[in-house]
Amino acid sequence: MQKRTAKQPDKSPTASARTRSNLAWNDFELVLAIATAGSLSGASRALGVSHATVFRRLGDVEQRLGVILFERGRTGYRPTLAGEELADTAKVMDEAALAAERKVAGRDLEPSGEIWTTTTDSLLMGVLAPLFTQFRHKYPGIVLDVAVSNQLFNLTRREADVAIRPSNRPPENLIGRPLTAIGQAVYAHKDLGLTPGTPVEALASEPWIGAGPRLQDSSVDQWMDNHALKQACVYRVDTLVSILSAIRSRMGLAVIPCYLADGDPDIVQLTDPIPELEYGLWFLMHPDLRGVVRIHALMDFLTEAVRAQKERLAGRRLR
Questions:
Q1: What is the pLDDT of residues 181-206, one digit of tens each?
Q2: For residues 192 and 180, what is the distance between their CA atoms, to the nearest angstrom?
Q3: Are both 13-105 and 113-182+279-314 of the same fold?
Q4: Cβ atoms of 269 and 187 closer than 8 Å
Q5: Tens-digit pLDDT profile for residues 78-127
Q6: CATH number of the domain at 13-105, out of 3.40.228.10, 3.40.50.970, 3.40.630.30, 1.10.10.10?
Q7: Residue (of 206, 202, 195, 200) closest to 277 by Cα position
């Protein structure tokens, strides 16, 4: 009788690869982060882990797969063909996960939960802060998580749910609602002794405050250039709130939204609202969030509350 032997484990290359290649999502995420950043340090910042952790995890993934995913060089990490394939797959997985998250987020039935909101410092200070307080009283089940930034967050990647932003050209991949028009005029501290209604050309000899490059206000920059005011700038700063502070400190004249200055008794409006510097205020969101009850509650509330102030926000004409 032939003697039976215990079945030996399959040591073929195919079986070995099958054992090694159980990749989890965080493995794909790691490869995508390194491919995008081109370095371990950049990937560690994106993933929020240490450089050593990224190095160790990459080595582990390559060992399990039995392939080299990145060529190491002085200029950084460049993906091999295998690395590119994994990174491309990771992009597809990431987009699918984000799309699923957005759709699931739209299934709430009651106005409750969190809304990640982004807006600018000037809008929060001059318009939105009291409105958010009123909204909180009306919808106590909704928590507003507000990120203040002059940069437009990526709503597609859920860096924020909604954006309340000034814009004349909102991104085409977003949907939303125009809330009102924002007027801008020239303002100065009353101690400078300037007369309201003075022609802009006559103010060219005064010190001016300009927008820094990070403020991305090209329309004001072009307007100042057209009126030969850029050479009169003695100070530049990259937020509207900081420009307002400079006006208060008697630094000079500046163009700012009317809603920021009209309530300050020490600041004088020198011109009518400037037509070419008017811009729209928008409520923006990703199309996948159009059915979310809490987001529509915020949009409808702000639409009514902001439009009730449209005359103030458009700015007053000098008498």
A1: 999 999 999 999 999 999 999 999 99
A2: 32
A3: no
A4: yes
A5: 999 999 999 998 888 888 877 777 666 555 556 789 999 999 999 999 99
A6: 1.10.10.10
A7: 200
Q: What are phi and psi of 239, to 5 degrees?
A: -140, 150
Two structure tokens written together for 46: 């994106």
pLDDT at residue 251, as a whole number: 97
Please tell me the predicted confidence (pLDDT) of residue 105: 59
Q: What is the largest CA-CA distance in the chain?
A: 116
**Residue 306, phi then psi, degrees to nearest 5:** -70, -45
| Neighbouring residues of 125: CB distance < 8 A, sequence distance ≥ 6 | 241, 260
The token pair at 292 is: 């979310």
**Angle 293-307/129-138 helices, nearest 10 degrees?**
130
125-182 pLDDT, tens digit each: 999 999 999 999 999 999 999 998 876 655 555 678 899 999 888 888 888 899 999 9
Architecture of 184-277 per CATH? Answer: 3-Layer(aba) Sandwich (3.40)
> Cα–Cα distance between 18 and 302 in angstroms, integer?
55
Q: Which contiguous run of DSSP H or E holds residue 274? A: none
Domain boundaries of the chain, sorted by first residue = 13-105, 113-182+279-314, 184-277
pLDDT in tens, 261-282: 988 999 999 999 999 999 999 9
Q: How many whole angstroms separate alpha carbon 282 and alpha carbon 31?
A: 37
